[in-house]
Amino acid sequence: LQLHGALSRVEGFGIISHRGAAALAPENTLAAMRLAFDQGVDFVEADLHLTADGVPVLMHDPTLDRTTTGSGAVAAHTLAQLEGLDAGSWFDGAYLGERVPTLEAFLDELAPTNSRALIELKGVWSDEQVASAVAMLGDRYLVDRVAFESFEVENLERLAVLAPEYARVMLTREWNRPTLELAAALKVSAIGARNEVFERDFALIDEARVLGIGTMVYTLNTPKQWAKAREHGIDLVITDDPVSLDEWRQSS
Ligand code: G3P
Ligand code: CA
């Protein structure tokens, strides 16, 4: 199996903390990321959307409504507008004052730690937008500590050209031989999907492995699910409970 770049440093069954320590703090905020860094799991996952003025910010949903005091599309707001929003109080009043972080602010928090990050590009990014984000990583010497994931084939292609040194994970809702062929053509390190997707045909996991492509499943939170994933040869697991998964991994 050829998990390149940052992913090659995962040994065995890799653990990825979903949206930061999202069970303990408001997802995709710096508070959630700091907690996840302290948990010491293999990777911290972050989602990125672009603002109206093209700035990458940590946000899962395409809209502001669920996790901030704003409303409407992230892409319809400038960074200056997002800076006035609260992104913590929806989760718990103790997090009042958390902001929507920029990618740059997240990377400034990540750089001095020992943690690694899996960064999802949501939506289709231009060459310039991909190049700008990659430059932020390069400025902080993060090439061995960051991998990218995306559902968008265009993003994966742009990353392959503009930042071939970074590991990439192809997210998919399809799971069949053409999926494997696409992943092989894109030269990604791994394919990522919901558990229900892999369940359609577990045998394809071994076929992917033969092609040198790993598999990443989301989002598994129970020992029963973790055991099944390991049994079927999944390489990477995104979880809301990385500490329990780490204990389980060490004891089983
Ligand atoms: O996106 C794939 C994986 O990162 C988990 O899904 O919906 O939390 O972004 P989601
Ligand atoms: Ca994600």
Automatic annotation (TrEMBL):
Domain GP-PDE: 13-249
One example GO MF annotation: phosphoric diester hydrolase activity
This protein's UniProt keywords: Membrane, Transmembrane, Transmembrane helix
GO BP annotations listed: lipid metabolic process
Name recorded for this polypeptide: Glycerophosphoryl diester phosphodiesterase
Organism per entry: Leucobacter komagatae
Full-sequence range covered: 70 to 321 of 325
